[in-house]
């Protein structure tokens, strides 16, 4: 039961941390790549609305590069979380559900 609670809590916390990393990096990276659009407009538009905000193809390319750069932190978070969980997963007891069901009958 404790493992399930921490598994679900970890997922919820990881999503909020990932979103925070993305938004903070967008605030930093959008002005670094282009000054044509303010970061708040990119955040409000979301990933699918970037093309509607960009005034020209070069600005769209710069915004996509800024968005891709901003996503790196979120992917690093997922990678670190996976690498930290892997040793614990390997150390857990593996059970065959069919054998456990037969023992309980």
> Which shape, going by the Cα principal axes?
elongated
Annotation field: number of helices: 5
Q: What helical percentage do the residues reach?
A: over 70%
Taking the sheet with the most strands, its summary is: none
- Overall number of domains: 1
**How much of the residues is beta strand, in percent?**
under 5%
Number of strands: 0
Stretches where pLDDT is under 50 for at least 5 consecutive residues are none
Structural class: mainly alpha
Round the mean pLDDT to the nearest integer and report it.
87
Q: What's the end-to-end separation, in Å?
A: 23 Å
Order of helices and strands, N to C? HHHHH
Cα-atom radius of gyration = 21 Å
Produce the secondary structure layout.
Elements: H1 2-33, H2 39-45, H3 50-53, H4 57-91, H5 97-104
Helix pairs in contact: 1-2, 1-4
Account of the 3D structure:
It is a single chain. The protein is mostly helical and about 100 residues long. It has one domain (about 1-105). It contains five helices and no strands. The longest helix is centred in the last third of the chain and has 35 residues, at about 55-90. The model has no long low-confidence stretch (mean pLDDT about 85).
Keyphrases for this structure?
single chain, 105 residues, mainly alpha, 5 helices
What is the gist of this entry?
With 105 residues, this protein is mainly alpha-helical.
